[in-house]
Specification:
The chain is mainly beta and 175 residues long. The chain contains 2 helices and 12 strands. The strands form 2 sheets. A 6-stranded antiparallel beta barrel has the order 1-2-5-4-3-6. It has a 6-stranded mixed beta sheet with strand order 10-9-8-7-12-11, covered by helices on one side.
Length: 175
C-alpha cells in the first residue's frame, strides 16, 4: 500500500502486565480518539505493515495502553515492540479552524515575517518530549530546527501551504 495514504498515529513501546496490554506512545491525540474495535495497520513502515484489530484502549495521563485482538498475553505483545500504528489518511477526523496534523506541515514553504523572503522548506516534523520541532531545509543545504511554538511560528496557512516565522527568532538560532 502506498505510504502517503497511511499515517503513523503511535508506536508500541512495551508490554504492560500479563494480559496482552501494551504501552503506546501516541503521536498527537488521534490514537486516543479511536473507537475500538477498529482496524489499523502495524509494522516498521507503511509498506510492510499488516492489518490488526485494536480491541481496547485505556487513556492514561502519561500515554495510552491498548490491547489487540488475538494478542492475549505478554509474550504475544512483546513481538509488537517498536511497531508503528497506522490509519488511513482519509479516516482522520477533520480538525477545527486553523488546527493541523503534523504530517500536513511537511513540504510547506517557510517565509520570514520581516520581508516575506522564502527561507526554506519543512522536510520533517519531530515530536520531542518537550516540544514538536520543524526541520527546515534552508538554501545552501543547511537545515534548521524550529520549535513549533508561538515564539518561532507566527502563522500556518494550510490552504496556501505556507508557514510564516519570526525572522528575529531565526537569526538568533543562526548566530
Amino acid at each position: 500500500m502506498p505510504s502517503a495514504e497511511w499515517i503513523a498515529i503511535g508506536i508500541v513501546k512495551r508490554p504492560v502486565g500479563l494480559e496482552g496490554f501494551c504501552a503506546i506512545e501516541p503521536f498527537g491525540e488521534t490514537f486516543a480518539g479511536l473507537q475500538p474495535p477498529c482496524t489499523v495497520r502495524m509494522g516498521k513502515d507503511p509498506a510492510s505493515a499488516e492489518n490488526a484489530t485494536l480491541g481496547e484502549i485505556v487513556v492514561q495521563p502519561n500515554g495510552c495502553r491498548c490491547r489487540f485482538n488475538g494478542k492475549n498475553d505478554r509474550t504475544a505483545v512483546e513481538g509488537l515492540r517498536g511497531s508503528f500504528i497506522y490509519i488511513e489518511q482519509g479516516a482522520l477526523p477533520e480538525l477545527p479552524g486553523n488546527a493541523y496534523y503534523h504530517f500536513e506541515l511537511k513540504g510547506m514553504a517557510v517565509y520570514s515575517d520581516s520581508d516575506g523572503a522564502l527561507l526554506g522548506t519543512v522536510i520533517e516534523v519531530h515530536d520531542f518530549p518537550s516540544t514538536s520541532t520543524l526541520e527546515v531545509e534552508l538554501a545552501g543545504s543547511r537545515s534548521l530546527m524550529l520549535p513549533l511554538s508561538d515564539q518561532a511560528i507566527l502563522a500556518v496557512d494550510k490552504a496556501g501551504r505556507r508557514i510564516t516565522v519570526r525572522q528575529s527568532f531565526v537569526e538568533e538560532l543562526l548566530q
